[in-house]
Please model this.
Amino acid sequence: MSSWLDYTINGLIVGNVYALVAVGLALIFGVSRLINFAQGSIYLVGAYIGWVAVVQLHTPLPLTIIVVAVAAALVGLIIERFGLRPLQNSVRIAPLLATIGISFVLDQLVMLTFSPNPRALPSQLPDVRFQVGGGTIGPLDLLIAGVGLTSALLLFVFLRYSKLGWAVRATAQDRDAAMQMGVDVNRVNQAVFGIAAALGGVSGMLVGMYYNQIDTAMSLQATLKGVVAEVVGGAGNVPGAIIGSLLLGLVESYGVAVFGTSYRNLFAFLLLVVVLVLRPNGLFASARQAPPEPLTGTFIAPSRPVRIPRWALLVATGIFAVLPLFPVSFYVLQTLINAWLLGMLALSLTLVAGTIGQVSLGHAALLAIGAYTSALLSLNLSVPVGLAIIGGGLMSAALGTALISPSFRLRGHYVSIATLAIGEIVSLVILNWESVTRGPIGISGIPPLALFGYELVSPISIYWFSFIVMVVLALLQGRLLGSHLGRSFRAIRDDDVAARAYGLSLNRYKSLAFIFGGFAAGVSGGIAAHLYSYINHETFNTQQSILALTVVILGGLGNVVGAILGAVALVGLPEVFRVAAEYRILIYGIVLLLLVRFRPQGLLGTM
Amino acid sequence: MAEALNSMLSLRRLTRRFGGLTAVDAIDLDLASGELISIIGPNGAGKTTLFNLVTGLDRPDAGEVRFEGQDITGLSPERLAGQGIARTFQLGRVFGNLSVMDNVLIGAHTRLRAVKPAVPLIGPLLELGLALLRPASVKAEEERLREEVKAILARFGERLLPRIDQPAYSLSYANRRRVEIARALALKPRLLLLDEPTAGMNPTETAEMQGLVAELKAEGLTILLIEHKLEMVMRLSDRVIVMDEGKKIAEGRGEEVRRDPKVIEAYLGHGLPGATEQESAA
Model:
C-alpha cells in the first residue's frame, strides 16, 4: 500500500500537467471570452509528435520538448488564424461551435494517421525512484514539476515585463479599450493561442511519458480536465487556473486512494459541477457583478426560417411512409432507420440547444438513460417492450432533467461545459454501478422491438415503427413551438434577463424543455437498445452528442423539419457517396466548421 | 422623511456597492400612486443600477424596497413581474428572433391563467400538457391576449401594426424601444419603470413618445422615468430626483431642481444640463 505522501506527490504531479492545459485555457478565455474545446486536441497532437520524435527520430529529451512545443504552437496559430479569426464579428455561439468542430477534425486526423490503438511513449529518463520521507519520487516527476514551474515563471515574466505581455493583459481587462489604445488584438490572440498550444502540447507529451501510453481518447479527457481546473480557479484567471489544477490533481489522487481508479474522473466532474453550482465564477472570483446588458440576439444568428408549405411536408411524409412498399434494398431501409433514430435525438437537441439556447454537449447521456431503462425494464421486470420504451423516455425526461438542472443557472459556454461533464458522469456511473447496470460487461440479450405482443423483426416493420414514432414526436414538438411555451423558450434564449423581468422563471422553462426533449431522446435510446440487443457504457458516447449537434446546426437551430432533414442528410449522404466509416466523423467535423463559417443559420434557418 | 400613506413604491437607504465604488448610496424615494417621478443625473450616476435594484435584477447591499407596503427587497425579477412591476431597458432588450406580436405577448406572460394553473408541484407539468392539448379555455385566452396586443400596438399608430409579424431584430432602433414599451404595457403594470425611452430618437419621435407617456400618466399609471431630455422631464414629471455618484443630491419640482446650485455643480463637470439635452437630441 502506497503512503499518503505518494498520493500527494502523484496528485501534485498530475495537477502540474493539468495546469499546463488549464493555463492555456485561462489565457485564451481572458483575451477572447472563449472556452477552447480544441485544447485537448492540441494536447493529443503534442503527445503524438512527441512519439514521432522519440521513437522514430530518436531526439534527445531537451530537443523533444522543443520540437513538441514548436509544432504544437504552430497548430495553435493555424487554429487561431483559419478557425477563429474569421468568426470575430459573428454571434457568440459561433466560436464555441468552431472549437468543437476543430477538436473533432484534429482528433480524427490523428486517429487516421496513427490508428486508434494505444502506443507506448517511452520516457527518456532513467527509471529510478528516490526515497523521500515515506514516499518515492522519480526523475520524470521532477521533470514535470520542473517544466510546470519553469513555464509558470516564463509566463509570469512574459505577462509582467514584455510589451506583448502587457498587451495580453490589457486585452483581457478590456478588449475594446485595448484596441482603441492601439493594441493589435490579432497579434495578442496569436500570441495567446501559440503559448496555450505550446503548453498544451508539452503537457500531452509529458503525460504520455508518465503513463508510457498514448491514445486518441486522451483528447476529450484533457479538455475536460483542463476546463475543470480552469473553471475551479475562475475562468480567465491564470494563477487561479494553476491552483485549480493542483487542487484537482489532489482531489483525484486522494479519491483514487480511497475509492479506486475507476472513480478518478467522477471526482473531477463532480468537483466541476459543485463549483459551477456554488461558485460559478470560480473559487477565487471577485465580488458578484451585475451581468452586462448584451445587445439582442447575439448568441444565435438572427435569420428568417424557410417556410415549407404544408403540402410539401405531407408529400414528403407520404413518400417516406410508403417507401418500403417499393422494391428498395434492405440497406436503404437500414440507413433510413438510423436516420429516424438520429432524427429523434436531433429533435430533442434542437429544442434544448436551439429553441431555449442551452447548447448541450452531453445529450448522448439522455440516450443512455433511455436505453438502459428500457432494456432493464424489459429484461428484469418483463415489461412489454413498447411500454418499456415509453418508460425509458419518461426516465430520461425525469432523471435527465434532474441531472442537468445544475446547469440551468449558467449561460453560454458554461452550459456546454456543464452538460459535457454531466454526460461523462452518467457514463461513469453506468460503468461503476455494477449491481444495476452490469458495469463494463454491458447488457446483452435485450429483447427485440415488439408491439402488442408482436415482435418487429423485419426491416420494414422496424422502419415503420421508428418512422411513425419520429413523426409523432415531431408533430408534438411543432405543437409545442406554436404554444405559449414555444415563445417563452425562445424569449429565454434571446435574452434571459429581459425574460426574467417579464416573469419567466428560467428553472421552470428550462426544465420543461429538457423534460420534453429528454423524452424524445430517451425514446430514441430505448428503441436503439432493443434494435442493437446489446449496449454498454460506451454505446452512447460524446461522438453521438457532437453528431447530433452537427445535425441540429445543419438543419437550423430550433427547426423541427430542419432536425429531420439534417439527420437524413448526415446519415444518408455518406452512404450515397460510400464514404469509409473512419472518415465519417472527420466529415461531420468539417461540415460543422463550414456551416459555422458560411451558413450559421443552417439549411432551413433558426426558428 | 414621512412615510406617505398612499405610497406605492418606497425606497429606504437603498445601497449597492461594486468593489470600491458605491453605485447607489443610501437612496430614499417615495412614489405615490399615479405619480410620475423622473430621475436625472450625469452618466454613471447610478440611475440604471437603482432600476435594477427595484426590479430584482440586482440585489442591494443594504436598505429596503417596499411596494404597496410590502417588503420586496431582493425578490426575484420573476416574482416582481408577477406583482405588477414592469420595466424597459436602457440599451433595449427586445427578443430579437421573436415577432413583434410574440415580444408583446411575452409581456402578458404573468397574466396567463388558463394555461398556467396555480397548482403546486405538478403545475409546470400541467402547463406542458395544456400547451400541447390546448383545450378551448387555453385557445380563448390566447386569442383574447392577441387582440389585446393589437390594441396596445395601435397606440403607436402605424409604427408597429404593419410590422406585427416581423422579427424584432429587423426593426429600427426607435421601433424596438416602442416594442419594449408595448411589452411592458401588456403586463398591465401597476408600476412602470422607463429607462431612457427616447434614447436615440429624433425630435419627432421623442415628441410622440412624450405624448404616449403623458397619456399613460393621465390614465393613472404610476411611472418612474430615467431620461436625459430635460424638456420632456420638465413637462411630464410631478417631481424630479437628481442623482450624482450614487447619491440623491436634489429632489423637488422641476423648476426648483433646475435652479439648485448642487445640481448645476454636478452637471458642470460633465457638461451643463442644456448641453446634455442637445447632445442626445443630435
Observations:
- DSSP finds eleven helices and ten strands in chain B.
